[in-house]
Amino acid sequence: MLDMERKLKIFKALSNQTRFMIFKNVFTGGYTCSLDKVQPGVKVNPIATCVSTVAEHFNFSLPTISAHIKELKEANIITVEKKGNKVYIEPNIEIIRELAECFQTLVTNFDNNRELFFGDTLSVG
Amino acid sequence: MLDMERKLKIFKALSNQTRFMIFKNVFTGGYTCSLDKVQPGVKVNPIATCVSTVAEHFNFSLPTISAHIKELKEANIITVEKKGNKVYIEPNIEIIRELAECFQTLVTNFDNNRELFFGDTLSVG
DNA sequence: ATATTACTTAGCTATTTAGCTAATAAGATT
DNA sequence: AATCTTATTAGCTAAATAGCTAAGTAATAT
Fold first, then answer.
1. How far is the CA of B70 from the C1' of C13 (A)?
2. Secondary structure letter of residue B43 according to DSSP
């Protein structure tokens, strides 16, 4: 389970527009890093593979993007893997899955408690 | 649907420990504001009903807590209602529900895309 | 009418953040 | 070996943030 500290880090990481966009970019851009393992040579959506490639999509300096990626990594919502010269980036889907579950649990518990207390359901306006 | 700006505000609101704890407090503390409407006089879990009551649970000044509550409100994850002297606070469950759905969609799409591309499923290690 | 309660606003300070450039490190290429 | 590519680190600045106290507003109670 994600403890509070981890959640705070994730929220902080995603609270900045630049980092949010980088995350989106990494998440939707492709998983060349994975692909390399499975089908070497196959290149799809090479948008978000490495730091400088990500940086090309932003009007910020490479060190700025690098620092943001570091923060996303420390929040554990992306993983990075150095291969030779480059740092390959992947979304950490398991953490996002956990986060989704956290929010879902919150909502479900709320609904259940409400039903228990008031004896109504959400469908009843 | 929550656009990026709204999401950024929510993440920012939840990225600070004090605000996170206030949110937790409000979320789990009780919904006296709602109860007042339904069953006037019934008091349950009066922990998070109003600003000063929330503030009692923190070692920060009332203005500090007030400002945090304002930010949670502007992120739209709580609602506030002034009744006479007091400001009653409730969690905005619908926004949390939307957020849960966003994350769930992200995860589901990821899994589907992966299956489409690689022809495997998550259960296959 | 006055005092009290509940909350917000104003104005301040210390700290953190997000950006930059320049310098450094470490592979890859020639 | 020398150079180029990729990325990080260091050191800087402007702006934002999170806390505070004091003062102000508005409703309630005396």
1. 22
2. -
Q: What is the pTM of this model?
A: 0.87
Identify the three-state secondary structure at position A82: strand
Task: Return the bridge partners of B50, or none.
Answer: B88
- Rounded Cα distance between A13 and B57, Å, is 27
Phi-psi region of A39 (alpha: psi -120 to 50; beta: other; left: phi over 0): beta
Q: Measure CB to CB from residue B20 to each of A8, A99, A106 and give the nearest one.
A: A8
| B82-92: pLDDT as tens digits | 988 999 999 99
More confident residue, B85 or A13: A13
CA-CA distance, A18 to A20, in Å (whole number)? 5
Looking at chain A, which residue has its C-alpha nearest residue B99? A103
- Chain C nucleotides near the protein (CB, 7 A): 5-11, 17-23, 26-28
CA distances from A50 to A21, A78, A87, A94, B41 (A): 15, 12, 5, 21, 60
